Structure formats: structure tokens, C-alpha cells
Amino acid sequence: MIKGKPFVKWAGGKRQIIDKLKKYIPDEFDTYYEPFVGGGALLFELSPKKAVINDSNKELMNVYECIKDEKKFEAMCRELNHHETEHSEEYYYKIRNLDRDKKKFNKLIDYKRAARTIYLNKACFNGLYRVNSKNEFNVPFGKKNKVNTYEGQNLGIICGYLNYNDVKLLSVDFEEAVKDAKKGDFIYFDPPYDSDTSIFNSYTENGFGKEEQKRLAKVFKELSDRGCYVMLSNHNTTLVNELYKNFNIHVIEAKRNINSNGKKRGKVEEVIITNFENKRGFEEEI
Ligand SMILES: C[S@@+](CC[C@H](N)C(=O)[O-])C[C@H]1O[C@@H](n2cnc3c(N)ncnc32)[C@H](O)[C@@H]1O
After folding, report:
1. C-alpha to C-alpha distance for 168 and 51, rounded to whole angstroms
2. 15-56+172-285, which class in CATH?
């Protein structure tokens, strides 16, 4: 089976540590849940037959929706061709600023919004998703002469995966997204990172602060008590160690892949937390 890969570059994307993550997944499970799916690095790597994926970012989940619907997918690809042909600095700002007029933007048809999200991600500076307090995309132009929005066959492969498997798409809060998870299901949480230095991390218009990290730890424990396999990745911070002290905490080294300050790019410690041990993960430790 040819596997897809993330169709957008996403803050906190897990491509760099995918092999480490794979070592800790359970040997068998029923439905796969990814409540903070972002670019979906682990989702595509595992390509499970039954999955529930979610992200509170509506623009991002609209892209997944459009790729899953074959008619919308075709229309979205035509739009992407158009963006690639027209690409320039002036054009980038024209498309970026569509969300400045909320009335008009809310009426923009879903496949055009999806193509805009992919195009902006490929054409903006450093491939990040960042909005201001008015929920306006505000990343500057990335100064590329050409953009490649399809990355070969990737979008087609993802379209096939989402269509030929039982993949449910949601755009709600993480707690709501996992409410139907049952014993034997596998939930992978990849929340916005906690930090020992800052008190606030902003991904969408809503931040994900310490209180959210604590709420997530409660949900982790509830799912664990329900008999689910639960795995979570985060930075190796004081709060994270405190919240998950009763579970298995595996420390790994990861490369920071999105940071507008080039000097801060480098190695950082991350943790992979599980409520179960499998043979591969255990061998890794000794
Ligand atoms: C670290 S990123 C996920 C990265 C992803 N695993 C990847 O490989 O690209 C965290 C994601 O959580 C989403 N998010 C933030 N708060 C949320 C919430 N309360 N419920 C669900 N998703 C949320 C953000 O929109 C963001 O896409």
C-alpha cells in the first residue's frame, strides 16, 4: 500500500519522530482516534482502516472534508492549478486577504476555501498556520518563485485512503472527539506543546494553556480507565511530568521543525507517554 504524507506543513508536525512514535503504538487495536490531527503524520503512516480524526481548526478540517468528497476534490484540484499558475507576491496577498471580509469569506464555497488553505500553507513564510485575534491568516509571503501544492501523487493517495476506509472527520474540542472511544481503541493525543517558559501557546484563535493541559490529562486517565490504549506526545516539561507521573513516560530527542527564529531551531526533549507497554517500546528502553 502506498501511504500518504501530510498535505500541509504544520506546527508540531510529527514526521521527524515518526519512527520513534511507531515503536510505542499498541500491537493491535480497534478504532484509531487522533483528536489533534494537524497534518496527520501518524494517521497517514498507520493508515488505519477505522479512524476518527479531529482538529478544532475548521479551515484545516474543511480540507480533509474536501479531499474525502470526490467531486469537491476534483474542484479543489482545479483551484490549486489556478493558484499555481497565478502565483506571485501580489496574488498571495490577494488570496490571503480574502478572510478580511468575513461576510464574503463565510460565503466562499468549501472547495475554494480548502484550496486557499493548502496554497497559503505552501506559499507563506516557513509554512506555518497563524491567525491574529480576528482569526485572519497573517503569515507573510514566503518568497518562493514557484509552489508545488500537490506534491506528486500525495493528494490523490490521501483521497483514496479517506474514501476506501472508515474514516470519520470531526472539528470539535478534543474531549468531545473521544467521547465514543471504547475498550481496545487506540487514542493518540498530540496537543499544542506545553512550555516551561511561556504560559500561553496559540495555534488557532483559542490558546491551549496550562488549564487545557490539565483537562487533557483528566481525559487521558478516563480513557485509560475505560480500557483504551492511550498515547500522548508533548515537551518534557515540569507540568507534563507531574500530570502523567502514574503512566509510562519515555523521553526522546526531537528536532524543532518550525520556529521563526532560526537560532532557536535545534534539539529539544519530547516525551511519549503511554498507559501500556508493548514489546518494541520495551526493547528500545533497555
Ligand atoms: C501539535 S498540533 C498537531 C500536530 C500533528 N500531530 C501533526 O503531525 O501535524 C496540535 C493541533 O491541535 C489543535 N487544537 C488546539 N486546541 C484544540 C482543542 N481544544 N481540541 C482539538 N484540537 C485542538 C490545533 O489546531 C493543532 O492543529
Report:
1. 6
2. alpha beta
